[in-house]
Task: structure prediction
Amino acid sequence: MTFFKEFKEFAIKGNVFDMAVGIIIGSAFTKVVNSVVSDFIMPVLSIFIGNTNFKELAYVFKEAELDEKGNVINAAITINYGNLIQTTIDFLIIAFCIYLVVRMFNKLRKKSENEQDGSVVTPKNIELLSEIRDLLKERNQS
Result:
């Protein structure tokens, strides 16, 4: 019974809900980043490389063998490095964005911890009134 009780506490605390929301937002964010990379960054890079489609970049070890009709007898042997380039750029952009989000949350967490530290600055007029009270007590005692 303790397993179910622990799971219920875990689910009620909101951790599962937060995780589900994070996964949904992450998948949507990945689509946005993939679009930015494939529709914006890669065309700009293709100007310098001279190839418009990175997914077609490949090193051919052996050309495909074709028969007289143009049908493939033996497929080409290639290393398709263009897709690796695009996937790597996707990863770097996503990693950088996640770094920025985590950094922002850490700053917000530190700021909220500093606000909760209990050391409240006493206003100057309250300090002066306290000093006057203490001086009057000393005067009345003597």
Summary: The chain has a mean pLDDT of 79. The first strand starts at residue 59 and ends at 62.
